[in-house]
Amino acid sequence: MTAMERGYEEQSESAGSKQELEQIEIELLLNGVHRLYGYDFRNYALPSLKRRIWHHVHAENVPSISALQEKVLHDRACFERFVYSLSIPVTEMFRDPGLFLTFRQKVIPLLRTYPYIRIWHAGCSTGEEVYSMAILLHEEGLYDKARIYATDMNARSLQQAKEGVYEISKMKQYTKNYMEAGGTRAFSEYYTAKYNSVILQPYLRKNIIFAEHNLATDTSFNEFNVIFCRNVMIYFNDELRDHVHGLFHESLSRFGVLVLGSKESIHFTRFSDSYEPLDRVEKIYRKNQ
């Protein structure tokens, strides 16, 4: 073996050792968080999880994942920042307008036949999608007989969702989304501008219940006619994704509607035969058994 070949081999062994050490550190961190705080990130997809953990290592100005573990386990405030960093909200009102337009056209007629409507927004983040649903139901004359359950594991995001306060700079995009989603009024009717923010009208919150719920560890808590869970399970591995689909299947009433994100699907899960597509493009499925 030449000196160059030995050098490459040593570099390869060193890289392998670093990767193994990194994996051990991540497992110890996640096991510690689960045992101490009850939050289970162990079945999140590793590539995106690793990126977010290293981002938080730098944000906390610590030298390693092991150092982050020590800080997270001994400092509740650090733990809360860590949870927030692993569930960075990416959302907007009437996001993917085509979905909400299709919901108006294909799901609202079904909901009109129910005496009472329960909708669960799982992983609701800062609430924009929840309020979008409240507006849609209000315009369709169904809000008074509806109850929306908005849940997330992130307490900071939930607090913002409860307040219903958003940046005024986002209203131009939100208004565009609203119109493309089939909005029937002036979007400005639904908020009051104040300085650099807007406050959504209080009546939009009256039938919304905000609560902490962790899809990885918590169980079903009601029976629902509609479940929204969009662009949440893309961060899960196959085992956790299958677990969450089981939770949703248990929580949906017969003929209930499941709405997934654009990159998600009911196919290749053990529940695929339990649903029929209402719209394949917008990932809207109806439970048939």
Automatic annotation (TrEMBL):
Gene3D superfamilies named among the record's database cross-references: Vaccinia Virus protein VP39
BP terms from Gene Ontology: methylation
Keywords linked to the UniProt accession: Methyltransferase, Transferase
UniProt enzyme class: transferase
Molecular function per GO: protein-glutamate O-methyltransferase activity
Any Pfam family matching the protein: CheR_N
InterPro entries, per the entry: Bact_Chemotaxis_MeTrfase, CheR_C, CheR_MeTrfase, CheR_N, SAM-dependent_MTases_sf
Matching PROSITE patterns: CHER
CheR-type methyltransferase domain mapped to chain residues: 14-266
Enzyme nomenclature, EC number: 2.1.1.80
Protein name as it appears in the record: Chemotaxis protein methyltransferase
Native source organism of the sequence: Paenibacillus auburnensis
